What we know:
The protein has helices spanning about 5-10, 10-30, 50-55, 120, 255-270, 285-290, 310-315, 335-340, 395-405, 420-425, 445-455; strands at about 60-65, 85, 90, 100-110, 115, 125-130, 135-145, 150-155, 175-180, 190-200, 210-215, 225-230, 235-240, 250-255, 275, 280-285, 300-305, 320-325, 330, 350-355, 360-365, 365-370, 385, 390-395, 410-415, 430-435, 440, 460-465, 470-475.
Amino acid sequence: MILPKxxxxxxxxxxxxxxxxxxxxxxxxxSQLWSDLEVRHKADTLPDxxxxxxxxxxxxxxxxxxxxxxxxxxxxSDSNSDPFDLFGQPFEPYDMPHAHSLGSGFIINRDGYILxxxxxxxxxxxxxxxxxxxxxxxxxxxxxxxKTDIALLKINAPYPLPIVPLGNSDAVRVGEWVMAIGNPFxxxxxxxxxxxxxxxxxxxxxxxxxxxxDASINPGNSGGPLIxxxxxxxxxxxxxxxxxxxxxxxxxxxxxxxVKAELxxxxxxxxxxxxxxxxxxxxxxxxxxxxxxxxxPHGAMVSEVIDSSPAKAAGLRHGDIIIAIDxxxxxxxxxxxxxxxxxxxxxxxxxxxMRGRTTQTVPIVITASHEDELASVGSQQPxxxxxxxxxxxxxxPTIGQELSLSGHDxxxxxxxxxxGAAATAGLRPRDIILEVDRKRVSDVVxxxxxxxxxxGNILLLLIKRNDGTMFVPLRRHADG
Length: 480
């Protein structure tokens, strides 16, 4: 006989109740190993995003771009190449003429200023912005910053435009509800919700301290807003961790406070000028921390000091560990470039440095970074290496001299094949190869010889990217 649902569950529930009563009586007489929650207030209900979505969706736009030629820096959407994907949505293969890509953006000013990701508009010959009401406008780029992946666009509309206010990403707490609006896979004005999963996330080789969220974001969401419950933008959606090419519940947004700090320069200069120390840095290992007398590894170790730099003038040395700037601790090496960039050019700062087992304070004056000059390379044609799927070029001697790269040593990667071994290893255009298997490379010829003559199936490359250096293992075959 089949019992009614209520009858079928009545016996187990009663038995469970008896068991709980027995355990409660036992624990009352003994010391308890845990603490019980005293419920004082009724739990809040789930948030309602209806009003937010209705109010803010009109300020979110579709950003479509057109390239006349193959985009040299475009990243493959193949999830096997790198689990951290920038997700402008490709509609045609990158090597097709007049390729189109699709991303998102949002209006921050009624005069038509729009924020999006730099990689959404990279190499674009034409940018078309479509509003929710269907109106299309050709946009022009006002400013771009590839280090933080932010671009400022401008459209001219004959009427005041809806806007999304910018909030305070520093005040966002892990566990807070957030909403994303964008154009995933071309489905315009899709609204998804989730929570802030973490803050201060670093993606290898990137500049930002990202906000991590489990709000569903997919290809095409690039440049769209991450919105708090108060209706303000707390981040700009920029990347996802994926092994499938689609959302896996781990998305990353650029904190809006970092964006707000850049906007005045993007509007007035078209780019961002940052301060620099003029050092190459690497993480502090347990061994290095022990040698310096640090109980826990933290800070940034100086691996090289660049000539004619603020660090050189201040007397920094190879092996110094920078543990604080203006008494603000440097917990991870990746934090150092962000902390330095926040200091106005020409401003002074005090570094706390471990040298040997001695703590020293080093005053330093911050000057403008030469990082962007690395984009300028010689006029020679790049040399392709089909084994690893990359193209190489000698450093421009002038830039090499300014940056003191061991007498102009190093080779610039100009392009990376999407499915090649270099892409799988995470190498990127504008990376500088300094060493191959612990041997310095001075030019393309020596680099090619080192790449072709290395022993084993894996080569260890020392590369410079942005303000830091890192070791990258490079397999001879992408599927190895």
